[in-house]
Amino acid sequence: MEKTNLINCPNCNAEINVNEVLFKQFELQFSKEYRQKQSDLEKQFLEKESDLSEIQNILDKEKKELEEKNKDFAERVKSQVENKIAAEKLLLEQSFKEKNEKEKEEFKQSLIFENSQKMELLEKELKEKS
Fold first, then answer.
1. Cα atoms in the 13 Å half-sphere on the side-chain side of 52
2. Angle 68-69-72 (CA atoms, 0-180°, nearest 5)?
3. What is the CA radius of gyration of the chain?
4. Is the pLDDT of residue 1 over 70?
5. What is the 3-state secondary structure (H, E, C) of the chain?
6. Cα separation of 17 and 2, whole Å?
7. Integer distance in angstroms from the first to the last C-alpha of the chain?
8. Within a 10 A sphere around the Cβ of 17, how many other Cβ atoms?
9. In this structure, what DSSP letter does residue 10 have?
10. 4 DSSP assignment
11. CA–CA dist 71, 79 (Å, integer)
């Protein structure tokens, strides 16, 4: 049971439904407020999205910098290790060479000593036979 409120236009005498007019006014006002709120929310969303994009770009840049630093650090460590290994290898080679030379010299001296003793024995034998 809908009660209609009708009024007549004083100029053209047309019937006007007051409920429809008020409904249309409320509908227009509500739609306008809704669109404004939706627009505000979309604007806030875009701002947040922009902020997040900026943060992501900063994080990506920092990640790249860290990766470069890690790469540089790894290269420096590798270089230092290689240098240390080369130095140790050189020391070992020198030590081995010195030891080898010493052993050669000792062997040479022992051969000379043995040969001289054998020569002495041979000379002694030769003297005894003669």
1. 6
2. 85
3. 54
4. no
5. CCCCCEEECCCCCCEEEHHHHHHHHHHHHHHHHHHHHHHHHHHHHHHHHHHHHHHHHHHHHHHHHHHHHHHHHHHHHHHHHHHHHHHHHHHHHHHHHHHHHHHHHHHHHHHHHHHHHHHHHHHHHHHHHC
6. 12
7. 164
8. 13
9. T
10. P
11. 12
Asked if 39 and 47 touch (Cβ cutoff 8 Å), the reply is no
Q: Which of 4-13, 30-39, 98-107 has the lowest mean pLDDT?
A: 4-13
**Model pTM score:** 0.48
Whole-angstrom distance, CA of residue 83 vs CA of residue 97: 21
Can you read off the two tokens belonging to residue 74?
């790894």
How long is the chain? 130
Q: How confident is the model at residue 2 (pLDDT cuts 50, 70, 90)?
A: low
Which residues make beta-bridge pairs with 17? 6
Q: What is the Cα–Cα distance from 111 to 125, expressed in whole angstroms?
A: 20
Output the CA torsion sign for 61, 64, 66, 68.
negative
Strand (E) or helix (H) holding 17: strand 15-17
Question: Rounded CA gap, 67 and 75, in Å?
Answer: 12
